[in-house]
Request: fold
Amino acid sequence: MNDMNDWCFACGPRNPIGLKLTFREENDVYLTNFTAGPEHQGYNGIMHGGLISTLLDETMARYLYAQGLTAVTAKLEVRYRQPTPIREKLTISGWITSKRGKMVELAGKITLPDGTVTAEGKAMVAIKGDE
Reply:
């Protein structure tokens, strides 16, 4: 990761107000965990929807970076299935569903410890350069 990426809001370790996400890959799925605090809420006790979309976007698109590709999100869709609570450990996962030339389609979800899915995402991500 270069110095500029160290300031990424979602994953940058140097960003003092960032989410500081760390990732792992398991069985072709890219994963991270996050526990939202009161500073991440929209309505009382519920995580802000914009941050939910940030978690999904970062997990899906960053999966391609983990594979050595440079990519940008071209389209992002989020389906909010139910409110995502703060102060609960969330698992965010992303995986590739298809590839067409320089476009990669990914899917993702946010899951509570009991397995309940609170949000789902789909992204079309464009691979940059000759990769």
Observations:
- The mean pLDDT is 93.
- The beta strands are 24-26, 29-35, 71-80, 89-100, 103-111, 117-127.
- The longest strand covers residues 89-100.
- The chain has one helix and six strands.
